[in-house]
Amino acid sequence: MSLITVAGYAAVLYLLAKLLTYLSKYVRTPLNVNKLGDWSLVTGATDGIGKGVCEELAKQGQNIVLVSRTLSKLESCAKELEEKFKVKTKTIQMDFGSEKNIQERIEAETKGLTIGLLVNNVGLSYDHPEYFLEIEDGANKCQALVDININSMLKVTRAVLPSMVARRKGAVINMSSFSALGAPLLSVYGASKAFVMKWSEDMEMEYSRKGVTIMCAYPFYVVSNMSKIRKSSWSTPTPGAYAKSLLNQLGCVSCTTGYWAHDLMNFGLTVIGPLGPIISMKTLQAVRARALKKKERLNNEKKAE
To answer: What's 40's domain CATH number?
Structure first.
C-alpha cells in the first residue's frame, strides 16, 4: 500500500471522526432546566432566537424573565407565554445600548427569584455587510456593537451568576454567531462574537467545578429580523426549531452551532479550509451590493414623491 493511499485513508477517517463528534451530542441526555431553578432569564427575548428560546422553556414549565428594549413587544410576548403555557413571567424593559446600570437593575428586578438558566441572546449586527471605513456613523455604530454584544453580556452575567455559584447549580447560554469564525465586511460584529466564544470557553473552565454549566452557541442563519430571512429551509430553521435543538444540547457540549444543518455547514467549512474566508468575502460582497442597490432605489423613490 502506497504512502499516498495510507494518507488518504487517514484523512477520510479523520473527517469521519470529526463528523461523528459533531453529531454525537444529539444522542446525549441534556440538562433538565427545571432542576436548575424555577426561572430562566432571556435577553433579546421578543424576537428571533430569543423568543423561540422563551417559548421552548415555557413549554418545559419554566417561568421566564424577559429582557428587551420595546415595552409593547415585552408585554405581548409575556401575555402570550402566560396564556399559552400557564407559566409566570416578568418583564424588564432595557435598552442595552444606552442603559448605564445594567447589573444593578437586573439584580434589583430579579431579587427573590431562583434563576437556573441565563440566556445572553441580545445582539446587534450591521444594517448590511460593509467595509469598516464605510460603516454609516461608524464610531457610534462600533461602540454600540461592543456595548450590546459584549458589555451587556458581561454585566447581566455578573448580576445572575453569583446566586448560581452559591447554590452550585445553574447554566448560562451565550449566543455567539458563525461570524465569529471569520466574517469580512462584518468585521466588528464578527470580532465581538469571537469574544463571546472565547470568553464562554474560559468561563466554562472556571465555573464547571462550581456547579455551573456555560455553553456557547454560534448559529448560522435562522429566520429572524436580524438575518432578514423570512422563510425557513433545511439550512435556515425557524427560531422555535433552533431553540428546541439548542436546549437539547445543554450540558452535552460546551460550544455548538446548535442545529444539525449548521453542524454540517460548519463541517464543510473545515473541509475547504483556507477557501472558506474567500467564499465568505464573495458572498457578503454580493449581499452588500444588493443592499446598496435597494437603498439607492428607495432613496430615488423618496425623492420622486
So the answer is: 3.40.50.720
